[in-house]
Amino acid sequence: MTEVSSTRSVKARCGSFLVGTERGVQREGFQVAGRSSTAGSMSAAASPQGKFTLLRDTGTDGSFLVHHFLSFYLRAGCKVCFVALLQSFSHYNIVAQKLGVSLTAARERGQLVFLEGLKSCLDLLFGEEEPSGEPSPLQFISGSTSNLKALFDFVRTSLTPADSASWKGPVLLVDDLSVLLSLGAAPVAVLDFIHYCRVVVCSQLQGNIVVLVHGSEDAEDEENDLVGNSLGHHSDLILWVEGLATGFCKDVHGEIKIIKRLSLESTEQDLVQVYQYKIQERNVTFFARGLSAAVL
């Protein structure tokens, strides 16, 4: 992409988004118009902890952000609990390998705790028990309970540090929270689950939470909108991916709005930045509106 000194063109490696800084959003590996961003040299250990990041998408698929966060935190040496409700382990592993990370190796060394939601659902439907003998984290599907306590207990147990643990800050990653609604969980139960996860992961363990809520194509899907909007009011950082209003373009795949909350208690105005992006095989390129390589 042609660099223009008067623009804020941005090129990012996969896994570039992480946490907010005083200038907006810390981005690992970003090159900012004519000078290198120092964010790339900062590790997850040096970044703010106890933060809740909400990923949303409208009219496009924002799953690429999930892969970015997953690979970033694993490379940073964090303990990650990944509640994967949308795809299989093999899918996430194939994408992660393209980003230079092996989920299989991370799981074997105890750094990654992976809940494969698709498999757990099938096991419940066919009456198979969990290998550990414990209740399934998705026990609510069977109708025996209406809350998500079993899923919360799974997260808490997975991220509670052991005496010999040498991992950095714990991270909870959920893809995608909307699936819980589709499986029959009530919006209140989903919001309660996130609330208790924030108490344990963000407040007690000083870790981070990253949650994806897919936008619904159904304009009358009030439950999904309720959950997404409610979480938005309590998020430290929101990354909102939207499709182009003009339709498909091979050089610009969409826009991303970065909303950073200066304070959840004060009335200070949020910091908002908007970029366009193009997804490539192993990275994503970000640039200001109207400054794609095709235009320049």
UniProtKB/TrEMBL annotation:
Pfam families per UniProt: ELP6 (PF09807)
Alphabetical list of InterPro entries matching this protein: ELP6, P-loop_NTPase
Gene Ontology terms describing biological process: tRNA wobble uridine modification
Pathway: tRNA modification; 5-methoxycarbonylmethyl-2-thiouridine-tRNA biosynthesis
GO cellular component: cytoplasm; elongator holoenzyme complex; nucleus
Keywords: Cytoplasm, Nucleus, tRNA processing
Subcellular location, record wording: Cytoplasm; Nucleus
Similarity comment: Belongs to the ELP6 family.
Name listed for the protein in its UniProt record: Elongator complex protein 6
Protein's organism: Anser cygnoides (Swan goose)
